[in-house]
Amino acid sequence: MNKVLAYCAFLHREEISLPESGVGGAPVQGLAKGALRLLWSRLEWPFADSLLQRNAVEFHQVISHVFSQGAVIPFRLLSLFDDPPSLAAFLDAQHSGFVADLERLRDLVQMECVLYLAPQPGTRASGRDYLEGKADLLRAAESFESSILKALGSLSLGTRKRESKSGTRIFVLVERGNEERFRCCVGEVPVPERLARRTSGPWPTAEFLSDAVKVPPITGSKTAGPR
Amino acid sequence: MQNDREPMIQAQATDKDFSLLDILDHVLNAGVVIQGSLVLSIAGVDLVYLGLNVVLSSVETALKNLNPARRLEIGQEE
Fold this sequence. Notes:
heterodimer, A: alpha+beta, disordered C terminus, B: mainly alpha, two-stranded antiparallel ribbon, 2 strands, 5% strand
């Protein structure tokens, strides 16, 4: 079945170059409404799960291509529509919210720091070790976050924190171009005992999107339904 | 065409496996969620629930298939 896959939205500028191909090598096409642009391509759905990694990388490459030149609102990999008119209807409905978020987050990127239990090579962790480690992680994450924010100072323009199975994830909004300063500041904060830290970024500012943009109202539901 | 793209993707995965995991995490978990996808169905079968199951099992498979040495490197980064 042929579906329309949405990649990302961004504000048009003459100098922004677009990727030629996307998931499965399909041509990447653009949809415009005012200054807002939305990239999409055709996709055979459902795709084989063996293609997941490749499709994910190709999906990411399309978004990264544009994100390297400016702010984007990324869609998730499974953002599917029936056809281009359905996608256009979605863009009409979400236009003002998307534009507002893109203007608010213009010139900003998201950096991430994950705090997790350090692996102990050569030892098999007992259930007790695991639970103690988890408790340490939760206790340390809070003070670690405040230490990071103190170290970042005015570099941080916003933070979000999320607990996950892999650890505590701290998302920080910084100005584009300050990524290396972020890494240096975070690198100076001591890592709590038994824990480890990993930083990544820059990423699109997905954690800082407004709720209405991140989860558009249900009116979009008809766009993905079968004919 | 698929073969033409293979080398580029394999090269990325080999250079930085943790980046591949980051990519999987971000493309599946970060960004706009189309609620409409939840009603995507044929003959009463919800395709997206089906699709999500397929995807989740693939991510699990991807994680399991990671070379243990690389997993340790990921964990020890920084």
